[in-house]
Amino acid sequence: MYIGIDLGTSGVKSIAMTEQGEILASCTIPWWYLALNLCGQNKILAPGGKQPVNLLMVSKPQ
User: Fold this and answer.
1) Which residue ranges make up each domain of the chain?
2) Under the phi-then-psi rule, with left for phi > 0, alpha for psi from -120 to 50, and beta for the rest, what region is 36?
């Protein structure tokens, strides 16, 4: 099995495939989706609040 991850300028792309080239799974998530939904960038902080922790999760949006 091979797994490929591309951290490009427009987002994150990933693929899992067999040695024979059969694609088992693939996913593309744009950076704006990660920033707004997974990193907490859409939340307004209260005075004295802490910045959200930046993280990278590659999963298919529901």
Assistant:
1) 2-54
2) alpha
pTM: 0.51
Instruction: Give the integer Cα–Cα distance in Å for 8 and 37.
Output: 19
- Tens of each residue's pLDDT in the chain, 62 residues: 899 999 888 888 899 999 999 999 988 888 777 666 665 555 555 566 555 544 445 455 55
Sign of the four-CA dihedral 3, 8, 12, 13? negative
Strands of 23-30's sheet, edge to edge?
A: 2-7, 11-17, 23-30
